[in-house]
Amino acid sequence: MVAYSARVDQQTVAQLVLKYLALEGATTLFGVPGAAVMHLLDELKLQRDTFRYIVCRQETGAAYIADGYSRATGKLGVVVVTSGPGATNALTGTMNAQCGGTSLLTISGEIPEQYFGMGYLQEGVDTDLDVNAVYAAASRYSTLVTSASNFQTLFTQALRDALSRPRQAVHVSLPDDVAASVVPSVQFPTSPANYRALPEGAPAGLVAQSFQHLVAAERPLIFVGNGTREALRGGRLLRFERFVEKFAIPVMTTPDGKAIFPERHALSLRNYGIAGCEWPKYWLNPSLMDPKLPAKYDALLVLATTMGELSTNKWDPLLVPNGPFIQVDLDQSVVARAMPIELGVVAEVGAFIDQMCALGEAAQPDEKAVAARRAFVAEIKRKHSPFADPAKRDSEAKPILPQALMKCVNEALPRDAMVFVDAGNCVGWTCNDLELDPPAEIHMSLGMGPMGFGVGAAIGAKLGAPERACVAVVGDGAFLMHGNEVSTAARHRIGAVFVVLDDDNLLMVNQGMNQFFPDPKVWREYYDIGRPKLAELAHALGADGYEVHSPAEMRRVFPEALAKAAREKKPQVIAARINIDEIPPYYPKKP
Ligand SMILES: Cc1ncc(C[n+]2csc(CCOP(=O)(O)OP(=O)(O)O)c2C)c(N)n1
Hints:
Structural class: alpha/beta
Distance between the termini: 75 Å
Mean pLDDT: 97
Bound molecules: thiamine diphosphate
C-alpha cells in the first residue's frame, strides 16, 4: 500500500510547522523576532542546521525580501514576525505579494490564549487590534490557530492557497502557547502532493477556437502578462517563439511582464502600458503608419494578465481589437473584469501555449499574410525608435539624464541579471529605456506599487539566486523608506546592487501633481527631501557607496559595483545624481 502519511509522535506545533516548511523546501525565513513567537523562534534556533532565519530591519522589508526570494527561487516565501506591531508591519508586504502573485506565508506570533482580552502587551485578538481580521481583508487566506487539534487542517489550507496558481499570500496567527503544545501523535504527509494539487490543463476546444481566431485574422496580436512568467521560463519559450515566427504574430507584454518575451526578437513590440515602448501603438492603430490602413488591428490574445490600469493604459479603447478579443487566465475572476471580451478561456497558461503551439505545428499559414505582417512589424521598427526620446539615452549630459542612466545600466547588466523596480520614476525609466531578453528578468510590483519593494526584493532574490546579478532600481525617497534593509544584506553577505535615482525629491508625485495642478516651483520645494548623503548612508549600513554624476562615471562605477558584489558578497549602492527636469513618458505629449 502507498503511504500518504506517516505517524509522528510527541512533536510540538512549532516542530510541525517546521516539518511542513521543510517538506515544501522553504527553509529560509525572514522577519523580526519578538516574544509572541518565541517557541517557534527557539525551534528555528534548535534546527539552525536546516533552517535559516534572516533577521531583517523592519517587517515590511522582510516581506519584500521574502517576495524577492520567492520570485527568484519559485519557493514559498516565509515571513515570521511577532504579534501586534510585528504583524501589522508585515501587512503591506504580504498584501503586496497577494496583489503581485507571489507565494508568501506570513506567520505572526500571538500572545498565549489564557491572556486574551486582558490587556497583555501586543495582543492582536480580543482588544483594539484583530490581526486575523486585518489579514483576512488583505490576503487570500488568514487564520488563527486556536489549538493543536486544528493546526494541521488550518496550516495545510494556508499552504494550499499560497502555493496555488496563481500564487497567493496567506497569513497564520499562531498563539505562542499553541506553538509550544505537544501533539501526542499525528499522521504527517510524506509529500506536498498529499495535501495540494496544481491545475495543469487547458480546454482543447477553446484552445482550438482561440487558435482559429488568431490565424484567421489579418493583424493579430498576443499580449503577454506576468502570469506567464513561470510557464515561459526555459524550453517552452523557444517553442512559443517558433509559433509566433511561423505565423508572424507580434507579441507585446505588460509592464510587469516586460522581457518575458525577448525584447530584441524581430516580432517583439516590447512592453505596452505605463511608459511603454513606442511600437505597440502602430500595430494597434495601423493608420498611424499609413492613413490608408485601418485604424484598428483585428484580434487579441491576452495571456495571463489581470489587465489592470497600468497594463492597459487605463483600459484604453484602442486596445480593443476590431475582431476577436480572447483572454486566457487561470483565475476566472479576472477574465473580462474591466474590458468585455469575445472569448474567455480558464486555463493553465503553459498548457494553453503547448496546445496552441501543437496546433500551429500542424497548420499551414497563409504565406502572403505572414510576409505582409512580418514586413509591417519591420517597418514599424525601421521608422520608429522604441524609446520615447532616443537622443536622451545617448546623452553625456551632467547631471545624468535618467534615460542615459538606463542605457548605462543596460550595457553592463550580465545576461542573466534580475532587475527589481521600485515605485517612483524608476518605473517609467525602466519600462521605457531598458531592453532585455531572457534569461535576464525584470520584476515590478505594479498592482500596488509600494515604495521599498525593489529594495527588499533585490536582497531576497540575491539570497535565493547568489550566482545571478540582482539589481534594484529605486528612487531616493523609497531608498530612505526601506534602505535600512541594506544593513540586513551586509550582515548576511548578500551582494545586491542598488541603483538609486538621486533627485532629492519625491519626483514622481511632484511631477504628477504639477501635471494636474501646475505650480512647478512650489511642488518641487514641497517634495524636496533635504539632500541626504546616500553614499555615506550606504557606508554606514555596511555597503559600498558611490556617487556618480555623469554617464562616463556610471559606465565605470556600475561594472565595478557588479564585480565587487559578486566577489566580496557585499551590497553596493550607487547614488546617481539625475536631472530632475526629465519626466517619464507617463502623460500624453502636449501638442
Ligand atoms: C508606500 C508608498 N507610499 C506612497 C506612495 C506614493 N508614491 C508613489 S511614487 C512616490 C515618490 C517616490 O519617490 P522616490 O522614491 O524618490 O522616487 P522618484 O519618484 O523621485 O523617482 C510616492 C510618494 C507609494 N507608491 N508607496
